[in-house]
Amino acid sequence: MDWIEVIVHTTTPASDLVTETLINSGAQGTMVEDRADVPDPTKPNGYWEIIDPHMIDAMPEDVLVHAWFEPDASFPDRLQGLKTRYAQLLNTDLGMDPGSLSVETRNVKDQDWNEVWKQFYKPFRAGIRLVVKPTWEAYEAQEGDLIIEMDPGMAFGSGTHETTGMCLALLETVVTPGSRVIDVGTGSGILAIGAGLLGATDVLAVDIDPTAVKVAKENIEHNHMEKTVRPVVGNLLDGMDDTCDICVANIIADVIISFAAPLLTHIRPGGTFICSGIIREREEDVRTALLSAGYSILRTEHRGEWTAFLSQVPGGD
Question: pTM of the prediction?
Fold first, then answer.
């Protein structure tokens, strides 16, 4: 089957918004091509990619969001709707630079869009011990490595995005043997699996998207974490009474802001909350929400345009 590929030129902060618009318009799959998602191997900072450095030079200056649509009778209307929506966004104060939001289209074969993104996904070290390895790639493990084997499929969470990398690195600093962890917005399950490898004995992995939970379940099984990680469909933690020592949420700023206070009932006194998915422009808004809810902020991390917080719940020993 042939597909129509839509390519939108944008920026790192606006890529999530562009992706959401494409999915809401009926895209059957998406991929973000962003230089910021490929850490520079010439800069040793604890987060490096085992890739040919020339790959980065070959990538486009713009962030490109690729999406694939069925070439049915409704596609022309969908395309026009997308162009109209992006024109509206260009005239809206988004609090960030969305880029040109120009739109290109091309015809591709089915096998092309299923495989094209894999050329950018290679094994990389996400922290000191955690290494993320695509299931189809070879990697020679070093002593002490904890290897997460991933096939993200249609779910967010390949690990290459700065927000995922910061969350993995922060998990390394707080997870201890026996920890109970909740991963909100688990996507591919990468953070939940990482927590399990670090010694957590009970990990609840929640996502509102059934497709993401299906992908997470497959990755959990591939990493032999079925007895540790429980993937479930849920809207945040609505209707759940699970508690944890550590909660990690790699979502978006607005959700973290609204979720911070209710989350307190799910984290034991003295426990920690790792949150990311926060563009720099919203950093202070999230900081204010965390402090207002009663958390103390232990660390603030930055990578590219993104921020992550490690915060602590009052109480405990």
Answer: 0.67
